[in-house]
Design brief:
mainly beta; Cathepsin D, subunit A, domain 1; seven-stranded mixed sheet; six-stranded antiparallel sheet; signal; DUF3443 domain-containing protein; DUF3443
Length: 426
């Protein structure tokens, strides 16, 4: 539901990721493997789908680069303005290097990256005169901050009066809640450097980040009212929750497509692609007629899967916010820091089962992670990391593919209704 998993090249990797959720590893790791995999390449052919140009009003460019120490982080720019401005005027500011995350929902920006003219124009959300705050627990830490309203512009798309999270808002007197009704255990990500990005653009399959659960009942570790230095858990109406911005667009509001150029198997210093808004709404975002594999999911984008004989129940997903391919393997060698280190590129196969019971065979490649990271590159299509509690098909799988995310309750001309994930590989 609220999962973001990434590799921070400056932090230590949790090998048993049930505790930390995400992961990280040293960019200059040089740990030897405990076992040996035969040096015979069994890798599958790379996907070859190419992105559409990013010059249309419903597109923005995606870049993976060395902006931070994070590998495989897809970034976009967003323009944020005061609510009701229509996305123009002196209250607007462009904020670069915001993570594209298909397994979370809503825009979250660090207060420190929002210029003063824009920050002053945002409107704080309150209930009974008390500020509304939110804690969001991601794979390797929590974001804590106020809920505020803004206008968001991306290319020609406008999301008006959008509830967003302002992380580490200095005007919020209360510190991050802990204990029984507090945030999940994890680090407090209070600066851009702790995340490796200036914010998170959550554009997955849910229209909001909690939904009726937070509207109709008390959900610990989500929304709070903070009148002073202490907070109490709160119910928040769906319309006031942090919202998937795509759902607020006037036209191209039924989903997105993440399209990335393929990179060499040894990695690249930079990766590029296009984020396309809408599915079957414009000439450049067709799903119907593409022959795409379409996989209905639960509202959070999760499915069942089987990999190496192990079953995963609603814990298999495709996540652009995950820098690696996270899975448990008993056949691949791995370094003590958790990166898989096969002696030659190795092709692996998982079987995903969609909410409709449709099945899809997912093929991906894994190469020696220590060698890849030591290359100094930032974009990798074959970086694998040990994780025992989920099958997280992360950013490496996105290169050379068009990855579609249909928002729950929204239909496409292809006759499919969200939530779903779909992909084409050529």
């Amino acid at each position: 539901m609220r999962a973001l998993k990434w590799i921070l090249a400056i932090s230590g990797l949790c090998v048993a990721l049930a505790g930390c959720g995400g992961g990280g590893g040293s960019s200059n790791a040089s740990t030897s493997s405990a076992t040996t995999t035969p040096a015979v390449s069994t890798a599958f052919a790379d996907a070859t789908a190419t992105p559409v140009a990013s010059g249309s009003p419903n597109t923005v460019p995606i870049t993976v680069s060395s902006f931070s120490s994070v590998r495989n982080f897809p970034m976009v720019s967003v323009k944020v303005c005061g609510p009701g401005s229509g996305g123009v005027g002196t209250t607007c500011s462009t904020i670069d290097n915001v993570l594209v995350d298909t397994e979370s929902f809503g825009l979250r920006l660090f207060a420190s990256v929002i210029p003063g003219n824009t920050s002053a124009a945002l409107t704080r959300e309150t209930q009974g005169g008390q500020p509304v705050a939110e804690c969001v627990s991601f794979g390797s830490g929590n974001t804590w901050g106020t809920v505020q309203k803004a206008d968001l512009v991306m290319s020609g798309e406008l999301a008006s009066t959008l509830p967003i999270q302002v992380i580490a808002d200095p005007t919020l007197a209360a510190t991050i809640p802990t204990g029984t009704n507090g945030c999940l255990t994890g680090d407090d990500m209070s600066t851009p450097s702790t995340l490796g990005a200036n914010g998170i653009l959550g554009i997955g399959t849910s229209p909001n980040d909690c939904g009726v659960d937070c509207q109709n009942s008390i959900v610990a570790g989500a929304y709070y009212l903070c009148p002073s230095t202490t907070c109490s858990v709160a119910q928040v109406a769906v319309t006031d929750q942090v919202t998937n911005p795509v759902r607020k667009f006037p036209v191209d509001n039924n989903g997105v497509i993440v399209e990335m150029w393929q990179v060499p198997d040894t990695g690249a210093a930079k990766g590029t692609g296009t984020l396309v808004f809408g599915i079957d709404t414009q000439s450049n975002n067709a799903l119907g007629g593409t022959g795409a594999t379409i996989l209905p999911t639960n509202i959070w984008g999760d499915m069942d899967a089987v990999f190496e004989g192990r079953s995963y129940s609603k814990t298999a997903f495709f996540d652009s916010g995950s820098s690696g391919l996270y899975f448990q393997s008993t056949t691949l060698s791995k370094a003590s820091n958790g990166f898989y280190t096969p002696a030659a590129p190795t092709g692996l196969t998982a079987v995903f089962t969609a909410a409709s019971s449709a099945k899809a065979t997912i093929q991906f490649n894994v190469s020696n992670g220590v060698t890849l990271l030591n290359s100094g590159n930032y974009a990798f299509n074959n970086l694998g990391v040990a994780m025992f509690n989920a099958l997280d098909i992360g950013m490496p799988y996105f290169y050379g593919r068009h990855m579609y995310y249909g928002i729950s309750g929204m239909s496409a001309a292809a006759g499919v209704v969200g939530p779903y994930v779909a992909y084409t590989s050529s």
